[in-house]
Amino acid sequence: MAVERPDTEAYGTGGSPDGHAAVGQLLLTRRMRDFTTGATLSLLPALGSIVALVYTFRDQVDLAVLIGWATVQLVLIAVYVVFDSILDRESPSLGELRRHWRRFVLLQWLGSLAWAGIFPYLAPVAHGLDAVVLAVVAIAVLCGVLLVHRTAPSAAIFHVVVMAISITAAIWTGTGMAGLPALILLALFVIALLGSTREQERQIVEWLDAEMNRREATDTVRLLLNDYEEHSSDWLWTVDEAGNLRNVAERFAMAAEKPAETLEGKPLIDMFMADANRAIIARHLSERSRFHDLVLKLRINGEMRYWKLSARPRDDGQISGVARDVTSDRMIEERVAFMAHYDNLTGLANRYLFNERLRAALDQNERVRNIALFYLDLDDFKAVNDTRGHLMGDRLLREVGKRLEQEVRGQDLVARLGGDEFAILVETRSGAGMLIERAHSFLAAIRDPFEIDGQIYRVSGSVGIARSSDGSCDAEELMRRADLALFAAKNKGRDTLALYDQSIDLAARERREIEIDLREAVARGQLNLHYQPVIDLQSGSVVGYEALLRWYHPKRGIIGPADFLEVAEETGLIVPIGEWSIRQAFAETAKWEGHFRIAINLSPTQVRSPHLVKVIAQSLHAHGIAPERVEFEITEHVLMQESSISMGNLQKLRELGSRIALDDFGIGYSSLSYLRRFPFDRIKIDKDFVDGVESSADNQAIVSSITKLAEALGMATTAEGVETRDQLGLLRRLGCQEAQGYLICEPVPGENFATADAVDAAMRGGAVSGILAYRRTREASVKQSPRRAS
User: Fold this and answer.
1) Which residues, in sequence order, are CB contacts of 257 under 8 Å at separation 6+?
2) What pLDDT was estimated at residue 53?
3) 227 within a domain of the structure (yes/no)
4) Same-domain check for residues 126 and 151
5) DSSP-assigned states of every residue in 361-402
6) Is residue 663 assigned to a domain?
7) CB-CB contact of 631 with 600 (8 Å)
8) Which residue ranges traverse the bilayer (predicted)?
9) Which residue stretches of 273-365 are H helix?
10) Comparing 224-233, 434-443, 453-462, 591-600, which segment has the lowest mean pLDDT?
């Protein structure tokens, strides 16, 4: 077995040879220090354990063997002490450290073997108190790895393995199968010790990494300081009692880029531009008092420069000082100040400066009612970044910022708050009408095409407006109102605006209350599922049920999904609610009579969940439902997001055996393209086309086209929102296979469909009577003319 190389095995080997030596020496020094500390601390317990074993078992085994074993241990300890004493701790070389390290590790291996050999030897004769002493010493020696071997991972692992074998043999020798609990406990100890060894090694490597980084940083600072001293721009100057330069130094003249004789006798103060610091220095010169680190501006060959001056009076009446060119520092300070207050991309005010200006404007009580705030956000700007790249997106943002600045007055403030969100702060007495006109001008400015690198780009935006005159408010409240108005504008659609009013605030508060209540709805058992049957238009029989979520709110009553699912989607609550719905639907329908399809809606967020397929598979197995009986309905929004996770989950559901249906077909922007991108099992015709189909030729043509397209693609069709008998009959003639709607049965709790009698009772309670008669008529027709019915 080769001795480990601790200076390379736990740290990178890249870099120069000098770097290798430095890293290796640092790591070995740390290991040696920790090793010797642990070994020294363990000497007394080790000697005590040796004495205890010799004393306890002196009359039970061959004393010569015991004495020989103890002698070996003492020799190993003595050798360690000798090796430790000859190590040069002041400035050991890397080679010397490596040699000592190999010796120490070898000693530890030998010591481990010596300890491991004694316990199986003594175990057969250990009884009562003797067994307790042997067990205590064995466990102490085993755990000694934490103290002695913590910086030597190979020695630690060797020690733990060897001791584990030794103690196992001792336990088996002394107790046989009765010692199985002790062996299990020993295994747990071994696992913990090996894990602790690994963790200690990781900490040592992390310490080395941090130490090397610290040293590199120190060297860098020292190098920079040396470079500064070599290239310092300090120089001396002297003025007489009148403040005129005397004995002009060559370096001072070179800094001023003028001949020394030209500067001789000239007033020092005349070199600098008038400002507050120049007046202060003039006063100090006239009073012959000292000053320190005052920065003055001057022009040298037309270029603005900054000098920092310090001085003190001399006994001969003159004043001597030192000057330093701090132009670079000053430019950096100005750049930092600019970056702290202005957006680096557009040059507009940033959020910090915007907040400061807004608070300052609202703090002036006489003008507090004259503040108007516009929040502007580009519509679907992410598409520009995704299709054209972030560099083009950045250029477009700069152009938008320029146009917005052209639409405001000099005293107004345009700021970029981040991303594609801008704010315009205006002080005006204008009423709501004029503010709306200004918002329209902002929208018109960004609506005009942008030409960048010969390419034409068109974007639009949404604007939210808030006024400080809309009730007393501070800066945070005004920004909140503008944000609410922007949110309301975006809900209207693209390229529009909204002015804050109380109704927007009430809607936001109500939305927030819904969110808070919704977080507790599942835990409080307020969510329930209603089911709506789906019938076959040829036979009239029930072929499936769609599970529809309802919220039984204690104050608001029964709330439909349209009133809370959007909140659930935006807050991420849709995932736990959706998982509950899946489990609940399977748990309820598993108890019903008959063989029917179960339809469950999946939101875009649910489909993106990495746990979706696992939850569904577990629920199907738990309730004994065949996957082919389940149909999951998705909308076009799932495919619009072009998520690989979503497509992967849909494919896995198909592989599981379940079916996938495209819900609300026909109302999206590119429904036909989605049929090509994913092989759906069913198309659900949106109720907008079913409504009025009996009187609208356009709707009839659309429904007929959809059914023919679905038939060509091998997909089934289901019409939603059927409310009249005429619609039902016409849909059947147009080729639609299934239907659901209030004519058939409104969504009701699951117990209404648990039995055949319950189904009949539920469907008699539909909005329009007679659906059962229709079903029976169709069934009779099928029996008499099966070929025509098919």
Assistant:
1) 300, 301
2) 82
3) no
4) yes
5) HHH-GGGGGGEEEEEEEETTHHHHHHHH-HHHHHHHHHHHHH
6) yes
7) yes
8) 35-57, 63-83, 104-123, 129-148, 155-172
9) 276-287, 327-341, 351-363
10) 224-233
